[in-house]
């Protein structure tokens, strides 16, 4: 993960465009063709690729140019989200073929109930990964929030006060992550792996082996009943509302442009006047609050507070975000892609459950989607096809030369 130079502070004055807008904001949209002046669309290696494309010394020649040019045109024409739409349609057809009840009211409600908390936690994780960081502690934050909720309920706290306390706790847990990453200059991958286990251990200390399961029905119905006048679960409605909010922030505000700019180059963003450390810390705090909120919903859905609630969900969240087209290296992604990836993930999981597929092996979906997202996103498959086409064209040129001689 990228991080800013520790020798440079956050107080660098803006050097950007008119009205104090950071000059780098223009490169932060994550759109095809949007790149910094003097750089190619391919990023740091863009100059080298451009040199090879025009036949510069050391390049791969006309064959490589033809293969690369065709692949880049294909990439520009076919957006990631378009492929996800087709994938969603394919999953729906697969589910219908496997079971006639796939699109039934009860099954859709069940699908939302079982995936709502995962979808909610994916939203702040999307923004964090776009900045070039990651938060693997989200599910431990969920578990600790669930444990504290059960602990305080056992001591007869009023439920509204418990929920507020849990959300504040989530903000503090996120703040710890943010400060360790931004103020101490530690890599977010290492930090959040550490807090993943730390928060899980604290959750076990708080609640131990106790299972709290006597929550008031007025709250537990939120976790299992459909939202009034709809066939959607409460968690899906919460996710839809939050997705709109996060989407507007990411794609239609200066903060969103700053997030993209930080992901492309935190050093350049810093010199453009963006408060890199403050933005990253804020995102970790938001992640903590949203994960705690997911912990509250998770507890009410199961009507059970345990120290290990939500364990093992973090890889599902990461797989969904990457499948949604968010670059693991930062600087690229969209909320629409993540929403579509949630539908793909939830649909595949649910379709398998409607068959005789063993439920314990459902991790195949998570692992398969994660690997597919990394391969496609990193360009490994595209580059493989480009090299294959290059070899074919080189072979034809050699055969043509042999005929001439």
List keywords for this structure.
405 residues, disordered N terminus, 0% strand, 16 helices, ABC transporter involved in vitamin B12 uptake, BtuC, mainly alpha
Short summary of the structure?
The chain is mostly helical. The protein has 16 helices and no strands. The longest helix is centred in the C-terminal third of the chain and has 27 residues, at 276-302.
Question: Could you please describe the fold and organization of this structure?
Answer:
This protein has helices at residues 46-53, 61-77, 80-98, 105-130, 138-154, 159-182, 188-207, 217-224, 234-252, 254-264, 266-271, 276-302, 314-323, 335-353, 363-377, 380-404. The protein has a single domain, classed as ABC transporter involved in vitamin B12 uptake, BtuC. The chain is globular and about 85 Å long. The relative contact order is 0.18. The model is unreliable at 1-64 (pLDDT under 50). It has 405 residues and is an all-alpha fold. The N and C termini lie far apart (54 Å).
| CATH domain class name | Mainly Alpha
CATH architecture: Orthogonal Bundle
Number of strands: 0
Helix content: 55-70%
> The CATH topology, please?
ABC transporter involved in vitamin B12 uptake, BtuC
Q: Please state the overall shape, judged from the principal axes of the Cα atoms.
A: globular
Mean pLDDT metric: 81
Category from helices, strands and their pairing: mainly alpha
Q: Helix count, per DSSP?
A: 16
Number of domains: 1
State the end-to-end CA separation. Answer: 54 Å
The major beta sheet can be summarized as: none
Based on CA atoms alone, the radius of gyration comes out at 24 Å
Order of helices and strands: HHHHHHHHHHHHHHHH
Which spans have pLDDT < 50 for at least 5 consecutive residues?
1-64
- Tell me the strand percentage band: under 5%
